[in-house]
Every structure is written in C-alpha cells, then in structure tokens.
Amino acid sequence: EQRDGDQKEFLQAVREVFETIEPVFKDHPQYEAAGVLERLVEPERVVKFRVPWVDDEGHVQVNRGYRVQFNSAIGPYKGGLRFHPTVTEAVIKFLGFEQIFKNSLTGLPMGGGKGGSDFNPKGRSDAEVMRFCQSFMTELQRHIGQFTDVPAGDINVGAREIGFLFGQYKRLRNEFSGVLTGKGLEFGGSLTRTEATGYGLCYYTQEALRVLRNDSFEGKTVVVSGSGNVAIFAIEKATALGAKVVTASDSNGYVYDPNGIDLDVLKDIKLNKRGRISEYAERVDGATYFEGCRGVWSVKCDIALPCATQNEIDGTEAQMLVDNGCTVVCEGSNMPSTPDAIEVYQNNNVLYGPAKAANAGGVAVSGLEMSQNSYRLSWTFDEVDARLKGIMEEIVANSLDAAKKYGDEGDLMQGANIAGFIKVADAMVAQGII
Ligand code: NDP
Question: Which residue intervals define the domain Glutamate/phenylalanine/leucine/valine/L-tryptophan dehydrogenase C-terminal in the entry (predicted)?
C-alpha cells in the first residue's frame, strides 16, 4: 500500500485475494519463507510507452500504451489488451493481477499479464484504428512472443483490432506465430473464441446452480449489463438454456425488453453497425430505453450477469438486486462488484460467482487456440465448445473443493482464490527467489 497507494483498483483486487487465502498459510509455511505474497504483488515487468499516430485530419495524436507482465510462474504471460479512455496503470495492474489466478484456474499453462491504452476508438475510422494499432504494436512487439507473452482482446479490442495488431507483428518480426489469440479463423484463430467468455459464464453459472441449489437457468429472468462481446454471447447462451434475458446496456443507458432480448436485432446493432443500445428500443416493439447505465440493477430478476466493466455494482445497487428477489450474481466483467456489493451478496445468501472463475472461459479458449497453433491444426466448434464446458465445470468443482478444505464450504469466491493461488505459489517456491 505504501508503494502503490494511489492505485485504488489494484489495491482493491489484491485485498480481496489476500483476505481469502489466509487459511492456506497454516498448512504451507514454505509460502511465507519464500516471500510468495511480497513477490506476487510486484509485477515481473511493467512496460509503459508512447503511441504516436496521425488522425484522418492529419493531426498528430499521442496515447499511452501499457503491458504489465505480472507473473510467469506457470506459463508465458497471457491476458488481454484494453483500449478505453479510463485505462491507467492501476487498471491494467488490477486486471493483470486477477489474470494470474484466473489463468491458473483454467488448468492450462498460462501466466498472468494485461495491457492496453487510453486510446478511445469510439468515432474513429477503420483507417485511424489501423494506424493506432500499427503504432502500438511497433513498440509492443519487442516485449511479446509466442513463448513469452501472448496478448488477446478485451474492452474495445475485438477481431478488427487483433487483425491489425497481428498483421503489424508479422511484418516487423517476419514470423507467423501464435503471438496473439482471438485471431481471425483464416489466420490461426479458434472456433468458439468469440463466444467463449459469455458461453463460459453461463456454463459456470449453470453448473454452480446445479451443484449448490439443484437448480438451473430454466424459466429464470436474467439481467445482463453491457452489450459487447461478453454480454452478447452470455445473452445467447442463457436464452438457449431456457432463461429470459430482459436487459442489455452500454455506457449511456440500458434497454428493458419484457419479451426477452431479440438477439438478431442486438447483434445487428452492435456487431454489424457498431451502434448504440438505444437503437434497440427504436427497432423492437415493447422494449424501452432508459438513460443512465446503472439503472439496469433496478430491474427485477432472478439472476444478474454483469458483463460491462469494473465496479459497476455498488452496495446500494446490490441491495436493490436482493430486495427485488435476485439470488444469483455471476460475473462476466472483471471486478464488477465493489467490496460493499460483495458483502451484500454474502449477507443475503446470494450465489456469487466471482469474475476470475466465472469469466475464465475466454482465456481458456485462448489457451486452446495456442495449443491448436502449436499443433498447426483446427478443432471443430463442437470440440472446442465441449472442452470449454468441461473446463468451466472443473473450475466450479475445484473451487468448491478448495473452499471445503481450507475455508467456508460452498464459498465460490474463497475457493477460486485459493485454488488459483496454490498452483502459482507452489511453482514460485519451486523456481526459487526470482
Ligand atoms: P466490449 O468492448 O465488447 O464491450 C464492453 C461493454 O461494456 C460495452 O457495452 C460498453 O459500452 C460497456 N462499457 C465499457 N466501459 C464501460 C463503462 N465505463 N461504464 C459502462 N459501460 C461500459 O468488451 P468485452 O465484452 O470484451 O468486455 C466486457 C468485460 O468483460 C470487461 O470487464 C472485460 O475485462 C471482461 N472480460 C472480457 C473477456 C473477453 O474475452 N472479451 C474475457 C474475460 C473478461 P460502450 O460501448 O458504451 O463503451
């Protein structure tokens, strides 16, 4: 805290993990002797760089680029790139720190990292986005590689951006390798990667409901926030599993559709036209648009799936969810619930699936993309989807085992933190003080 006092998102993420893993230290004195916690909170490397580019009017623009290579104990650094004006070193560090445990939970050999820029792609032309991506990669390429650090997408970094980034990497390094995941299917991408985080979130929620409540999505009313990659495919899978999803949102507002979100319309607005969620209410009878994205938590539901951004549910909003009958919150976005919100879930017996477990499906399929690139082959959609489902179910099982062994039985948050931590800590001890 002395060193990083102003990095509030990072400290929030660290506190949540440290508060829950304490019981592990009694059985594992070697962790303390090897300074595991002190080393864990210090990234192995932080790269911060200038990203200059020229806009369509011929003006020079300068953004900040980041790559935090947090922990490589169990594999090459792995984690997404975020392009958003709210990106700071503290945000990238919190995301990178969370990523260490998430990647460990998938069971695949991936370390933790994260990166991005304060570049805002909203309103920018394809040519501007391309020039920005090329400039960003011109610096980033010296720090990454298929065996070192393998970035992927995150907020505002989708297929278009990954394509531009991959093209520039290939050109500069004269090398065609699996250095990025989320690539186009024509050049090494994996089927199911686009759907993976949203689908994985629903597989996780369905399994947790089955094991802990003998229940399922069938017949449930679901509130989803966001309307990006994670939200769209969470809505698709929750609907396929028999639920009715009644909301979607963006940073300006949310739509309420009592008949269940029409996915064809939503996909057309967001994926084809890069439009705003307000357009949904103009196109669908019975749907209403409300200004202000946070109002989405006032909508009555059984299950809430936050899929937009960090700290999007505070204590008051969590209480509103509970008062309206919500009994399940599983997180698609990273750290969407403030510590106060988590306390409300815990005090009201809400089935709470924390982000690092519930949204691990995206990085899990990224790991499978790396495997396919190494083998130089492509698995079918159903093959990858089945592996994704298996991984999400295993994450629920491993979290519950860890919670039972070391902490509070049934506590998915504590279980995820402990299960993710132990593997990384053991590797850090075995590799010496580095
Ligand atoms: P997208 O860029 O596809 O979508 C983000 C959505 O969230 C948009 O609807 C966006 O609205 C909204 N949003 C972004 N910032 C804010 C904000 N400050 N306030 C309110 N709404 C906001 O990103 P993804 O769907 O990929 O990512 C969503 C979340 O899921 C993030 O937390 C990300 O870290 C996490 N995640 C993503 C994974 C992936 O595979 N993509 C994997 C694991 C986690 P608007 O258009 O108005 O900005």
Answer: 190-432
